Every structure is written in C-alpha cells, then in structure tokens.
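Hello K.,

You asked for the raw outputs rather than the summary table, so here they are, unedited. I folded two proteins back to back in the same session to keep the settings identical. This is the first:
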Amino acid sequence: MSQNGTPAYEDGRIRCDDEAVTIRLYYPWGNKRIRYSSIRGVKRLPLTGANKVRKWRIWGSGDFIHWWNLDVRRPRKDVALVLDVGHTVRPTITPDDPDAVERILAEHAAGSGSRA
C-alpha cells in the first residue's frame, strides 16, 4: 500500500495490498485472499490462439485445474495470470492490468525469498 493507505493495485475484481492479493467473486459466496508467501509462482496464460476458448470462461472451472473468478469482461481480455499456490486447482485471474499485477507479485515473492 502507499503511504496514504491505498492498495498497490485495485480494479474492482483484483486487489493487491501489502500482504496479499484478494480475488473478488472467487467463490459463489465471496472472495479469496491469498497471502504473497503462499504463492509459489505466477504464469502468464495468453487468451489467444488455442487458449482463445478460455476467454469465454466467465466463472468457475472447465478443466478442474484453473479456477476463474467472476469476470464478465474476460472475453475482451488477452492475458490471464495463473497463480501456483501448491494445490491442483490454481486461481486464474484476468486483471485489467496484468503487467502491474505480475510485477507486484514478483516484487513480493522476491521480498519473501521465494520465486514467482
């Protein structure tokens, strides 16, 4: 967070603060908060070519590996970020600014001694 208390990133669905990333509307009943120390890695997933069909996954999972939070704007996006949290199912997000979120996650991973 900045000195004035605002998060490092916020787009209405994804929020990155000093301790964690919060994925809004991850579950039907609410949000998922993942501490940076729990993230083992981040992988960019282009939503083009063979992966273009994934753009239409508005919420949930189609393969029991990627879990997508609710994002009705996903069909207009070209990049997703897959978060490796050490489980078979991996949170997969489509922030409005994937470069900024990826940078924030990498910075926090570097600070905790893990690699993203």
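The second followed immediately with the same parameters:
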Amino acid sequence: MMIFFITFGFFLVIGTAMAVGYIFQNKTLAGSCGGLASVGIGKECNCDNPCEKRQAREKKAALELNLQNRIDVTNL
C-alpha cells in the first residue's frame, strides 16, 4: 500500500508542476494540428456505407440546414 501512496504522490506532484508551468506560459488551450484532415481522412467514419445511426444523424443535419436556409415566400 505504501508503493501506491508514493506513486500517487509522484503523479500528483508532476501534474501540479505541469499545471503551474502551463499557467505561467499564458497560453490558451489549442487543439491538434489539423486532426484527421492532416492524414487525408475527410470524416471520422471513412467507410462507404455508414451505419443507420450515422445516416439518421446526417439526414437530420441536412434537414435542419435546409430549414435554416429556406426562403419564406409568404412575406415577400
């Protein structure tokens, strides 16, 4: 049990040191450099036939986009 406490304390000290170092740098958090697009993958699921859940999400997103871009002719 003593090894656990020593290891936990070590990780706690290292984590605190990294946090303090990051705070003193005055940088904001940033994402990775391009993500999957940098390796040539256009989407997370790079399959030709996505699953039903993904197809439903894409269909819902397309319908919402159409509703946002719709022109209401009754007010013209």
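The chain has two helices and no strands.

Happy to rerun anything if the numbers look odd on your end.

Regards,
P.
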